[in-house]
Amino acid sequence: MGRSSVRVLAAATITMTLTSTVCFPRQEIMKWNGWGYSDSKFLFNKKGQAEFTGKRYSILGMVLPSLQDWFENTFGASVNHKSPATPALNASAVPPASLNEAFVEDLKATGIPFSHEAEDRVFRAHGHCLHEIFALREGKKFERVPDMVVWPNCHNDVVKIVELACKHNVCLIPYGGGTSVTSALECPPEETRCIVSLDTSQMNRILWIDEKNLVAHVEAGIIGQDLERLLNESGYCTGHEPDSMEFSSLGGWVATRASGMKKNVYGNIEDLVIHIKVVTPRGVIEKSCQGPRMSTGPDIHHFILGSEGTLGVVTEVTMKIRPIPEYQKYGSVVFPNFEAGVACLREVAKQRCAPASIRLMDNEQFQFGHALKPQVSSIFTNFVEGLKKFYITKFKGFDPHQLVVATLLFEGDRERVLQHEKQVYDIAATFGGLAAGEDNGQRGYILTFVIAYLRDLGMDYYVVAESFETSVPWDRVLDLCRNVKERINRECKERGVQFQPLTSCRVTQTYDAGACVYFYFAFNYRGLADPVHTYERVEHAAREEILANGGSLSHHHGVGKLRKEWMKESISSLGVGMLQSVKDYVDPDNIFGNRNLL
Amino acid sequence: MSTVCASCFNILVFVTLQQRDPMLKRDGFEDILEERRNSSDLKYALRCYAPVLYKGVTPCKANMLKNIVLQSDQLHYVINQVSQESGEAPDIIQEEASVILEEMAHRLQISTVRFFAFALSKAFKTLFQHVCVNEEGIQRLQQAIQEHPVVLLPSHRSYMDFLLMSYILYTYDLALPVIAAGMDFMGMKFVGEMLRMSGAFFIRRSFGGDKLYWAVFSEYVKTMLRNGFAPIEFFLEGTRSRTCKSLTPKLGLLNIVIEPFFKGEVFDVNLVPVSISYERILEESLYARELLGVPKPKESTSGLLKARRILSEDYGSIHVYFGQPVSVRSLAQGKVNRSTYNLFPRHIPRKPMEETQSFVNDTAYRIVRLQEDNMVLKPWVLMASLLLQNLEGLELSVLTEQTVWLRGLALSYAAFLDWPDHAPTAKVVSSSLALHRGLACVSGGRVSLVVGEPLGPVTPEEALFNRAVSVLSCASYRNQVLHVFLRPAMLAVAMHTAASSKKNEVYNCFSFLWDMFSNDFILCPGDIVQDFEEACYLLVKTGAVQMPQQDIVMTDIGQPTLSFFNGLLEPFLQGYQMLLPTLRSEYSVLCVFTGNLRCYEVLSSDMQKNALAALLRMDAVRKVKV
C-alpha cells in the first residue's frame, strides 16, 4: 500500500483562520455535546443497520451490517430503547458571566477579540470525559463555566493578556483543542474571580521551516491534522499522531506530555520538541539556543511538559520534522490468545524492531473491530473472508473467543519496510502468530478514530463508555490487564449495573522496559439512578487496581483534576512539593487557576 | 489502664457481633453415608467424575506441572544464587531441585481416588454412624472454585482429616485438592505412595535455611494456585492437635498462598475454613499417652494394619462444615498496600514486609477462629467439662441437671451444639455415656471417670499414669467447648483475682490472662480490648454480671456461671502456676504425686510447652545455651 492511504481520516480540515474581527466559533462545525464534526455521526437507519453519516471519513460512509447485533448482544441494549440528548443548549442553564470590568476595558484597548456569549463559554467549559458529555446531553445546569473567551492571535497577544490578568487578578485557563479527558478544562467551582478561557486556536501558523536542521517553528494553537497537512505540502511531517490529532493542538500535546501512535519512529512529544516558548505571570520562559541536548541542570522543558496549563500558556514550539516516508504499509497478525500476543510484542521490543506502530487488541476488541466491517459487495470477497475464517479457526485451531489481533504500521523506504515486515512476521510466527492481511490492520486503526463517535451512538441507547490508559513493566502486563478487567466486572456487579459490562484492552505502545495499555469500558445503564456516578466509582476502582498492579497513573492522558488524588502516592509528597514550589514561584497569585495536577 | 471506654462499648460489641453474625447463621447438615448404606459402593467409586475447574482451565498433568515449576524464573533465580554461593554448577543445582520436586510432588490419579472412594465407604460405614456435611457450604465452595483459586483450610484433629476431605469433595463432584502433608507419611512406603496418588504432596518437617528447598516448595504451591489447577489444602495448625484445642497457626504456607495476590498474579484468593468435628476421635487414648511423654508410634504400614482393631468400635458421627469462603482481597483492603510490591522484581524471593507479615498472622488467627466457630459440639463435651470439675464423680441426676443448665449457657453463647431433637435429656446423657464408656462409667448412680485397665497389680506410678490418661482424654472433650466460653471465663477469673470490682482493674487482670494464655488459646493479636468487651457483653447478656458505672460486679444469679467458668480455667491456671517456679516436669509429677496439686493436666507436654513459650514471651524466663 502506498502513500495514498497515509491518513485514515479523510480530507477533513478545520482551519478556522481568523479572516476578520469576527471569531469563527468552532461549534459551527463541531458538536457542542459530543465528539467531532457535527455532520459526522453514527446512527441506526430504518432497517436497523448502522451507518456513518458525512463525507469526512472516506473509509466509512457505508453500511455496517453487523454493528447492531454486536451492540445489542454485547450490552443487552436495544435499538428500540433510546436515550436521546437534549437537542440544543439551554442558555438559562448557563450561569451569567461575572466579568471583571476593568480587565474587559483594558482588553478592549488591545484589540484582541473576545466573547461572553453563552455558547462560546460553554463550549470551552469542558473536555471529553464521560461525565462532561453526559451532563451536556442531559441539559444539566452548569455550576461554573468561563466568564469570557479571548482569542489571541500571536505570542505578543498572549503576553498582553497575561499581563492584564495579573494586573486585574483574573483567572486564565488555556484552551487548545478541547480534547482533554482528565477534567482539566473544568472550571474550579470555588473560583470566585472572573475566569477567562484563553483559546489558542488563532495561533495556528507554521512560522518557519529549517530544512538544514529539520525543525519547524510553529505556533502552539495549531491543530494536529493541520500541522501535518501544512508540513506535507513542503514534503515533511512531524510523525506525531496521537489518536486525537484531528482536534488536539500542539500546545495541548506539550502541556499533557502527549504520545503519538508512531512514537517508535518519531518519538513522543518530549523527544520531538527542541524549544518551547511559554508565557507565565512571571514573564516568558525560553532557552537561549536550539542545541539538540544540553547539560544545564534539570531540563526546564520538563517543568512545562505535562504542566497542564498550571504555569502559563505555550505559545510557540520548535519541533523536529522528517521527510515524508516513501512507503507505508499496514499489516496484522492473529494470535491464538492474548498471552501469546503480549509475548510477541515483548520480543519485538526486546529486539528493538518495533514498526512505526504495533498494537495488540484483545479478543473483545477484535470482535468489536469485526462488527465495524462494512457490507461486502461481492460474493467473491465474502467467499475469501469465509475461507480466511475457516483457515484460522478450523485449520489452525484458534478459538474465536480467544484469538487476538496485532495491528502494524510500517514506514520507510520500500525495501526496508518489506525487510522489516518480514522480521516482525518471523518473530510473530514463533509465538504462533499468523499474518492476517493489511485490511485487518487498517481497520484496527480506523477504530481508534471512530471510537469516540461510537460512544455518542452508545449514549443514544443507554450505554455509557470511557477509555483510560496506563503504562506498566512488561512482566506485569498480563496480570494488570486481567485484574483490571475483573475488578471492573466485579465493581459493576456490586454497584448494581444490570448488564455485563464490556471491558477490553489493548497494548498500544511498546518500550524497552514496558508497555502502554489502553482500556475501554462500557455498560448499559438502564435501571441505574445515577449512571455517571456509578461509572466514576468503577473507574476510580479500576485506577486503584492499576496502581496496585504496578501500572502508572497515566501514560499520556495526564492527571488533570480527575486523578489528582493519587499524585502523592505516584510521585511522593516530596515530589509534589517540588512541583508546588515551581508553581508558587512562577505563578504566585494562581492566575493559571485551573487547579490541575496539584 | 484506661483503654476501655465505656461509651464505645455498645457500639464495639455491636460491630463485633455483626461481623461474626454470618457465621452464627449456620447451615443444616446432610448425612452422606446414608446414600452409601443404600446403594452400591462400587458403582459409586466408578461413577463419572467430572468436576468444574477454575475458570474452566483444563487439568494439568503432574509432569507438566513439574516442568512449569522447574522452568520458572523464580526457581532459576534461586538456582543461580545457590550455585554462586556454593560454587556448584547450576546444572547440578537444577538437578537437585528436580530431585526435591520429585520427592515432593503429588501424582493425583483418578484410579487411586476411586480405590479410596470404595475403601473409605466401607470403613466409614463401619466406624461412624453419620458423616454429615453442610451442603450449602459445598455449593458455596463449588462457586468459589470456579471464580478464584481456592485454599481449603481444615481443622486438624486426626489422620482421617485429609482422606475425609477428599472423600467428600469426590462425593460432591468437586475438584480434588492437592494436600500438603508431612514427610513422616513417607515412612509408610506403600501408603505414602497411595496418598501421593490421591493428591498429597510431601514437605519435610524442617528445612530452615535450605533456600533451594524453600524455592522449589513455594514455587510448586504457587504454580498450582496461580493456574487454578486444583484447590490447595493444608492445615493451618501445622499438626494434629492432640488436645482438641485449636493450635496457634503456622504461617509458612499461608504466606505462600497469599503472596500471589499481593503480587497481582491472581485477582483474589479464597480461603475456605473447614471445621471437622469428631464425636469420638480415633486417636483418643493415643493422644493422651503422647501428651504424657509416650513417644508417638512411628507411622508404619504394619502399625496401620494393627490399628484395624479400631474398626470394631463405634466412633459416633463426624460433622464437616465448609465455612464461608474468605476473600483475601477483601481482608487486605486498606491493610496492605499492594503497590509496595511494585519496585522489586517479583521473581526474586523476599522476606515479607512487616505490614504483610502482620496481615498474614492476623488472617491465620481469624481463619482458625472461624474453624472454631463452626465446630459441632456434642452433649458429651458439656458433660466432660462438668466431670472434670468433679473428679470424685457426680450423681447421675446432678450431672443430668447440670448438663441441661450448661446447654442453656452454651446456646446463649452461640455454641454450635448438636443436641438431639425431641429426645429426653436422660436419654441424651445415657447415650453419650454409652458411646464414651471407655472414659466414664456409672456405678451406683454415680458417674465418674474410668481409670486405666485394672488388670493385675499396678505400681503407684502406673496408677497415676492411668489416672492422668483418663483425665487428659476427658480434657480433650472439654477443650472442644473452650473457644465458646474462653473470653467470659477469663473475665470471670479476672473478676475473681482483681483487687476490686473497678473495670480498669478487672481489665488489667483480664489482659494479663489474655497475654499469658495466648499460646494456649486462639486469641487474635490485637483483639484484647474487643475480647474484653465481648466477654462483658456476654456475661451481662446472660445475667451473670452487671456493670454499674465503672464497675463490674456479679449479680445475685451469677454465682453458678462464674464459678463454672473459674473451674473451667482452673487446670490451666494451676498448670501455669506450677510450671512457673520449676519448668521441670519431674517436679510437677512429684507435686501431683504427693497430692500437692490435684491437677493432672500439668503433666501434658502441650501445656508445658505453651506455658514455657508464654513465659519466654513475657520475659519471665530466658533461654540459656548450656
UniProtKB/TrEMBL annotation, chain A:
Q: Name a GO CC annotation attached to this entry.
A: peroxisomal membrane
Q: Does the keyword Acetylation apply?
A: yes
Name the residues annotated as site: Important for enzyme activity.
359
Chain's gene name: AGPS
What keywords would UniProt list here?
Acetylation, FAD, Flavoprotein, Lipid biosynthesis, Lipid metabolism, Membrane, Peroxisome, Phosphoprotein, Signal, Transferase, Transit peptide
User: Could you tell me what this protein does?
Assistant: Catalyzes the exchange of the acyl chain in acyl-dihydroxyacetonephosphate (acyl-DHAP) for a long chain fatty alcohol, yielding the first ether linked intermediate, i.e. alkyl-dihydroxyacetonephosphate (alkyl-DHAP), in the pathway of ether lipid biosynthesis.
Q: What is the protein name given in its UniProt record?
A: Alkylglycerone-phosphate synthase
What are this entry's molecular-function GO terms?
Answer: alkylglycerone-phosphate synthase activity; FAD binding
TrEMBL record, chain B:
Q: Where in the cell is it found?
A: Membrane
Mind telling me which GO cellular component terms the entry cites? Answer: mitochondrial membrane; peroxisomal membrane
Ranges for domain Phospholipid/glycerol acyltransferase come to 150-279
Tell me a GO biological process for this protein. Answer: fatty acid metabolic process
- What Pfam families does the entry give? Acyltransferase, GPAT_C
Q: Which InterPro entries match?
A: GPAT/DHAPAT (IPR022284), GPAT/DHAPAT_C (IPR045520), GPAT/DHAPAT_LPLAT (IPR041728), Plipid/glycerol_acylTrfase (IPR002123)
CDD domains from the UniProt entry: LPLAT_DHAPAT-like (cd07993)
> GO: which molecular function terms?
glycerol-3-phosphate O-acyltransferase activity; glycerone-phosphate O-acyltransferase activity
* Pathway where this protein functions: Phospholipid metabolism
- Could you list this entry's UniProt keywords, alphabetically sorted: Acyltransferase, Membrane, Transferase
Q: Which family does it belong to?
A: Belongs to the GPAT/DAPAT family.
**Which PANTHER family does its entry note?**
DIHYDROXYACETONE PHOSPHATE ACYLTRANSFERASE, GLYCEROL-3-PHOSPHATE ACYLTRANSFERASE
Its recorded name reads Glyceronephosphate O-acyltransferase
Gene source species: Oncorhynchus kisutch (Coho salmon)
Which classification does the entry list for the species? Eukaryota, Metazoa, Chordata, Craniata, Vertebrata
Give the encoding gene's name: GNPAT
